[in-house]
Amino acid sequence: RDGMIGDIYSMGLALQALESTSKFYAPRDWDCEQAFSVVYSHDYELPMAIAQVLPALVGKSYLEAASLDCSADVALSPTLESSTSPNLGTTNFPRATIEVHYSVINTLRGQHFHYTIAVHVPEGSKLLKVLQVAEEKEPEKFSFQTEQTSWGPMVVSINKVAADTNDRTYWQFLSGGEPLEEGVGTYKPRDGEHIEAVFSTY
Predict the structure, then answer these.
(1) What are φ and ψ of residue 121, in 5° steps?
(2) Is the whole model's pTM more than 0.85, yes or no?
(3) Alpha carbons 153 and 162: distance in angstroms, whole number
(4) DSSP the chain
(5) Cis peptide leading into residue 27 (ω within 30°)
(6) Measuring CA to CA, which residue among 28, 47, 24, 9 is closest to residue 180?
(7) Which residues pair with 172 in a beta bridge?
(8) What does residue 133 show for φ and ψ, rounded to 5 degrees?
(9) Is residue 7 marked as binding?
(10) How does pLDDT run across 9-22, given as a tens digit for each residue?
(11) Which Pfam family is an annotated match for this chain, by its short name (predicted)?
């Protein structure tokens, strides 16, 4: 979809796989230009995501890591020579305050609820900041817990309703009805955006 392979988290490994097995694409070529344009335009911050996308940017894969000579010239990715470098790990400093509408919805377990709050955070803040401000304002409705993963913090409980692998439940974050492609530790809400945390099954 528009060059995206899965989501931004899976792009690095997908590009490595596609670059390494390009001779098997028949009868049409893979449009790598479009996929790499997604990588160039994304602001990668998580070390895990950066580690997975960097090999593809130099036309390599993890399989070639042992033989990679970093002191020698290496072939660049298909469009790297004609494009600006990707913005890896750049910090955007907050400049103004934005308003974000945040809802938590549970219709699956226990007492159902649907709460909405408007919070103000500095422009450029991550979604995690929105959750923190909401909890500070109304802890009886918007309390939450996270677990740290290699991909950043993952929300495992909201308003004392916890995700459970046994019943295949989790907290899904959406904007405009579409799942977010980044986690709460990296996604940056826009001014006026409505973020929903929906207790869901998979």
Answers:
(1) -135, 160
(2) no
(3) 15
(4) -TT--S-TTTHHHHHHHHHHTGGG--SS---HHHHHHHHHHS-B-SHHHHHHHHHHHTT--GGGGGG--TTS--PPPTTGGGSPPP-BSPPPPP-SEEEEEEEEEE-SSSS-EEEEEEEEEETT--HHHHHHHHHHH-HHHH-EEEEEETTEEEEEEETTEE-BTTTTEEEEEEETTEE-SS-TTT--PPTT-EEEEEEEE-
(5) yes
(6) 9
(7) 198
(8) -65, -40
(9) yes
(10) 788 888 888 777 76
(11) Cobalamin_bind
Half-sphere exposure at residue 9, Cβ-oriented, CA atoms within 13 angstroms: 12
29 is in an annotated binding site: no
Lookup: tokens for 8: 């931004």
Q: Is 54 annotated as a binding residue?
A: no
115 is annotated as contributing to ligand binding: no
Tokens of 183: 């986690």
Domains annotated for the chain, with CATH where assigned, are 10-64 (no CATH), 97-201 (2.170.130.30)
pLDDT digits (tens, 9 = 90+) for 34-60: 888 888 888 787 788 888 888 887 777
